[in-house]
Structure formats: structure tokens, C-alpha cells
Fold these 3 entries.
Entry 1:
Amino acid sequence: MTSLRHPLVSRVAALAGAALVTAVSAVVPAATVVFADDGYSHPVPPPKCTTEQADSGDVGDCLLAFYNDPAADGFGDAPEPGVGEGWVWDGHTYRGSPALADFEAANITANTERVGDLRVGYLSTNTLAHQLFEGFLAEIQAKGYEVRHVSGYSFRCTGDWDCSSGRYDDLSLHAWGLAIDMNSDANPIRTYPTCADEVATDLPEWAIRTAERWGLYWGGYGWNRGCNESGSTNSSVTRDAPHFEYRGTPAQARAIAQPAIRPNTRRRPSASMPKYRPAPARAQNRLRVLSSSASPKSAMKSGISGAAQMMAQPSPGFSHGRRRASAKTGAPYIRRMPK
């Protein structure tokens, strides 16, 4: 059946809709959101970087994933774990053992400035790559992701953390300070049946892309038989979602971190800096009210009164991380971020 509508009524309804759009625009920032804020539950890795890309420092569109020996690359000659005297295992790491005194003094450093909300001295990483980890953490915090806890240097092995084999080849990249684990409570290490299965993570895609621009490989892609190539069809894949590591050389790290490519992200963003945040709930609700209005007259009334209310109320602040909490997660060897 054809519906007849008076031209004046149609014009009033259009004006009401325009008033609402103006009000919502006043509440929602004009910044363009490139990536969703939800967890990157179906990750697709970019192509792997070539040596030329890594040497140039421009790794924003590729995945830096070379498998080199950190000691041979110049990140420090780590001693064979647990071999000889002076080793103290605290249940999670050999860090601080007398046998490691010279190695730690020469190759491990703590942040000398605040990194977002992380206090001075909180994070220890390799002296030749610390800018990459600190820059990444500062940037994602500035853009709204909350780093609740993070750990870096930990002299241990993969698999059996206590390095019962005594093999140098079993050392984790954490043992050189070339890896961090972040927010493991929301990003668990799990084995999935296939690469197509949904990944448990609260890390949004834009945070993973930020890590890649800083030359860091996300463990959420998996390891040797993981899902680190687009179109992977492997089965029984382990995804290390809290883990980020650097797999390049010291020279490549310097190229990635150089000021010509990297802005200063240590400072707090200004009020005008674009934020990654969803539309305010009241704006979404108002849109739903208008779309379900029974008549142009009711739409006009709801739109104009709602627009006036929204323009009269200030926009609330939003954060993509969870609210800062002090609840214990029980995760091993993870220090809490100070308030």
C-alpha cells in the first residue's frame, strides 16, 4: 500500500535528523578509526620483511621474523644456563644469579624514563633494543590501551624454564631481554585446533600493527608450525598472545628507532590527539530511538530534544583498556604496574 506524506512533515523530519547528526558530531571526535577496538581474534599476519626492508628501518608493512642467534648478532654472550657455580633458581628465573652478574651488567638495562604509566626502572630489556619495546608500550598507552602488567628480561629457557637440559640453544629470547610478556590475564597462551579458530585476546589489531612498526613479532601468530603466514592451514597451533619479541639485528633496531621514522611517544598525548574509541553509548541509543520512531512528528520531537540534551552535556572520557585494577591474576613472575 502506498503511503502518502505531506511535504511539510517530510521537511520537518529531515530537519530533526540533521539536528541529531550535528549533535552526535559534537559528541564524537572527528578522528578516523582505522581498526576496530575489539580483540584481534582472527589475526592475519602481513608478509615477512626482506633484509632490505629491515635494514632501512621501514617495517610498518611487513613482519620482522628472522631466526638468528642473538649472541652472534651482538646482543651479548649468554652463559650456558645452570652450568657451573653461581646459579640461583627462584622458581621462575635465574635473573640476578651471581653467574649472570657480568652478562646482565653489559647487556640488560631498565627504562630510565617513564613509559606511559610504567615507572622508571620497571621494565628491563636489552641495551641495544630497549627503544623498540619502550616506544611500542608508550605508543599503545598514548592511544588508549592499558598496560596492566608487563615483564621483559628473564634468564630462562623455553619449555622447561629452569633449563634442565643445560643447553644454550634452549634459551628463550627473554634471556637476552629481547622479549616482553604483557597483560597475560587477558591474553593467555593456548593451543588451538586450527589457524581459523578464534584467538582469546584483548589486544586490538591496531596495537599489533603498532608492534610491527616497532619491529616486534607478536607471539599470537604462533611459532614454527603456527599461523605466522597468511593462509596457514596448520593444526594444533600454540599462540603466545601476551608475547612480543625482537628478531632483528642491533643495526636494524637502530634504523627502526631512529628519530627520522619515530616520533617522540614518551609524552602524554595532547587533548587534540586522535583517540581510538567507540561512539558514546548515549549517541548510539539516540540513533536507535530515532530509527524506531513511529511517526515523523515523534522523530522530530525525539531528535530535537535529544540533540539539545547531548549538546548541553560534555563528552565523557573513554579508555580501551580495562579499568586499572589491583586484583591478582596468579601469573608467574609478573610484576604489577604501580598505580
Entry 2:
Amino acid sequence: MVGERAEVRKHEDHLRPEGEFLGKREQPSPTKGDRAPVKKPQDNLRPEGDFEGKRDQPAPGLGDRAPIKKPQDNLKPEGDFEGKRENLTPGKGDRAPVKKPEDNLRPEGEFTGKRDSPAPGVGDRAPMKKPVDNLRPEGEFTGKRDDHQPGKGDRAPIVKPKDNLRPEGEFTGKKDEPAPTKGERADVKKPVDNLRPEGEFTGKWDKHVPGKGERADVKRPVDHFRMEGDFTG
């Protein structure tokens, strides 16, 4: 009928194993919702013979800390010790005394030098000693040493070198007007245009051109389009 669901039909399996079954089906398999038991495999490796080792002390348990065992040194010096062990070695937290080694190098013979002045002590400033120049010119000096040299704190006069280049012959140019001196302003000179139109001018120069500072007249263009015929509206 309409609206009813057909029955689900499961086909039977026609494949079946033949003979006897050989396997491990002794324990029942876990069903749905049950947890299979944890099975730890057994170790088939076992030591043979007697055990030789250090098992005198029990191993630390869970949560216990194993004691720190420092290994002993099996290396020991043989014979008597020969060295410098007269002073006591500083212990933990003590600072060893600073020992400056002595110099075994000493000069032989008498000293010949400049040891007249005592050396400056700690905190003292050694005096400034300017070395004397041992280079001196030989013979008479010929040069320009007539003027007195400026001393310390004096300003040397400014010497402007003179020009030894001078034009030869007569000068032809525009030297009619005197050059402006210091503090005066040279006159503004506008160059004259040497380009001029030739012939008669034909154009719109009938009206006066506005000068500087004047405003040109507003010129509105006249419309040359006009309606023709009678107007009907």
C-alpha cells in the first residue's frame, strides 16, 4: 500500500568455512560498550648465570630523591710532594691575596740618563716640557722678514696680494661713466631694443592703449545674428 515501508530483507551468507578451526578463541571477544583487557606481552629474554653488580643499596622509591654520590678518584700521586705549598690555600668565600710577581730582569752597569728631576707622584701633573728643535738653517737668510711678526694674542695684518697681470695696449670700451662706489646703488639701465618693424603698420591701433595702472574698458561684443521676418507668438 501507499505510505507503508517495505520490509528489509537480509540475504543469508552461503559461504561457510570447512574443516576444524585452529586459532586463539579461548577468550570471548569484548562486546559493544565493553573495554578489552590490557594484555602486556611477556619478555622471553632472561639473563643467564649469577648477577654480579652493586645492588647492596635499595633503589629509591617513587617520589624519593636518590642520594648524590660523588665518585672517588682512583688516581693518586706517588712519592713525596715537592712544591710551594707553604701558604694556606684560601677557603670558600675567602679572597686570595694579590701576589705580584717580581721581575728577575735587572740592568747591569751604571745608569746614564736624565733623572735629575723627581718623577711626579700620584695625583700630580707632570710639567709640560717642549722639546728644543735641533735643526737650524746654515748661512745667511735672504727673504722677506722686514716686518715685525705678530706675537701671541695679536692679529696679523691682512695682506692682499697684488695682481701681476695687466692688459697691454689701449683700452676700447664703455668707461665714460664712473663706477658706483661702495654704499651707492648703480642706476638701473634698460637696454634699448634694436629690432624695429619696417614699412607701414596695418592693424587696430586706432584707440588709445591703457597705460600702467589704468584699467582697460570692458568691451562687449555685438551679436550679428538677427531674426528675419514677422514674429508670431
Entry 3:
Amino acid sequence: MSRAFLTVCLLIAPFRVMAESPDTLATDLKQTCAERELVPGATATCVESKDTLYGARLAETYAALKESLPPEQRTRLIEGQSAWLSYVKPTCALVEWSTRPESPSWALVNRATCNLAHTLRRLEELDRLKDITDGR
């Protein structure tokens, strides 16, 4: 593949529609970062940048969904988002810790990939809810 083609793919990858599962997309993005960066620290930074991009999209989707819901459902969404945020950080820290003995240099990549996978899953959930509420 040409370098220009790969560059274009890397630029648009964070914005593609999730035709594949969130876990598959997270793994593919991690692999792309690993192939491009070649070292664990830079790979982790690359995966974190993908998580930041999808996290921004998640925040936009969350805000739009929140505005579209009646007050009682809005409260449920806020509670659910708060619980999700409380769950992800320690869970992915545990993933990092659990993989450190086997592969210390890649443990940060594993944490970043865990965060990205959770972000993508939550984005898919909220996109689905938004589609349902938009139809009402």
C-alpha cells in the first residue's frame, strides 16, 4: 500500500461509522497504531488519541441525547453515564496491572485499548438510544 493511502486511512479512521463491532474497531485501531509507531509508548499515545477523538463524539452524542429526553429519562441517562464513567477507569487500570507482569512495556497500550473499547461500546449504545428517541 502506498504511504499516502495509509495516511488518508489513518486520518479518516476515527470518523468512520462503526460497521464493525466496537471491540474489533478498537483492536484494529490499536494494530494500526502499533504498525505505525513500532514502540509501546508511542503506540499507547496513538491509541489514547483515538480514544480522545471518539470520546469527543461520545460527548456530543450524550449531550444531544440528554437534550432530547424528558426529565425523568434524562435523570436516568445522567445516572447511567456517571456509573459508566466510574466503572471504566478502574477497570482499565486493572487491565493494565494484570498485563504488566507478562509485558510491562505493552501494559499502557492494553489500558489505552481498554479505554478505547469502552468508549466505542458506550458510543454505540448512546447512538442506538438516540436513533430510537429521534424516531419518537
